[in-house]
Amino acid sequence: MWIENYLIFLLKALTVLFTAAGIMALIGRRNPSDRHSNITIEHYNTTLQDTQKRLNKTLKKKTKRSKSDVPDQPRLFVLEFKGDIKASQTQYLREEISILLTLANPEKDEVLLKLESPGGTVPGYGLAAAQLTRIKSAGLPLYVAIDQVAASGGYMMACVADHILAAPFAILGSIGVVLQIPNIHRLLKRHAIDFEQLTAGEHKRTLTLCGHNTHEGRTKAQHQLETTHALFKDMIQTHRPKIDLDTVSTGEYWHASSAQSLHLLDTLMTSDEFIFNHLNTHQIYQMTTTHKTTFIEKITQAFTKTLQYFNSKIPYSF
Fold this sequence. Notes:
Blueprint: H1 2-28, H2 44-65, E1 75-82, H3 90-103, E2 110-117, H4 122-137, E3 142-151, H5 153-158, E4 163-166, E5 171-173, H6 185-190, H7 215-239, H8 245-248, E6 253-255, H9 256-259, E7 267-268, H10 271-277, E8 283-286, H11 295-309
Parallel strand pairs: 1-2, 1-8, 2-3, 3-4, 3-5, 4-7
Antiparallel strand pairs: 5-6
Helix pairs in contact: 2-3, 3-4
């Protein structure tokens, strides 16, 4: 009985939350400047070239101020990625990589990505990993440093690197795919509430929140999970061929000190130590994207962090 009451309370709480968010969104749109749709066309070539020129000026100024006597030192570009469920920082990572590729010299420069992510949605982290492959395709050595966690989709990103560094107690692995969704069909039925769902396509909906889940639907959903898992394993095998997939693709995770023997990483080292070791040999540049967060985005981020805290994964997640 208490479970039933809790579910009803949870539904009420979610209703209040989304209603409040909707009201705030409407208030935000009352600004007269938002009443008409505006279409903006941006000349991408010009934007990219302007950014490149601005950054080149910055790099030249910093090089002149350098205490080093080496006139043409190689450069280490440092990127940072803190992942959420949707890998939303990918929108900034892709822009940073686009600019980076116009500045870096593959013959001498290197790239370090400081990565922290427990995983999330398959499309989100698939795209983030694909962005990193652009760096390797350009011939730039790519290092990934894991100070705390790169699990599941986070490890999918990490495995793209030429060299993986990790702090001894960092968490790596969790090479698997999960689908979890509550089903309140029996609760609705008990209260004489009907739920109608029409689909076109045999497998349009395999598992649902409110409908009656069938054995056939579960079987199809499991098949989709296995297919995604196979793609995940294939990608890891491509980038880290020494890994024994039968051992590491069980969904478990390991601390870096144990994961090294499984070839999940190359060197036990923090990102700070790696950067410090390059101080006398490289010019080091941190690339970051600043973004002004709106009120609605703050609410969304807080809600997302709450979901992460309670380990509530979006369906079809790493």
